[in-house]
Amino acid sequence: MTFEIRWPDGAVASCYSPSLVMHDYLVEGADYPLAEFVDRSTTALRVASERVAARYGFACTSAMQQESEIVAVAGRYPGGTVRVLEMFPPLPAPETAPASGSGSASASEAVS
User: What 3-state DSSP class applies to 109?
Assistant: First the structure.
């Protein structure tokens, strides 16, 4: 997935993660204090890399590179906020439960 951010000076950057886990740590349209953004994004990228390692047997070098770039660029700023402009792909919309009495399985029954 990609996530686009605006640094404190207005510069825009496109970032990459091998996992949608970024959605667990960042919210599209949200502003984060610089240190919090670095903490959230690097934690998420480490989790993403670990997921790749669990599935394929090796860490994701792209996630590690992106983490390194975020830390390096953030080091140029004394503070400020980072805005998450866009996250793609977005999380899928949650399915709605069928109307009562439709004979379909409930959402809790459908997920095991």
Answer: helix
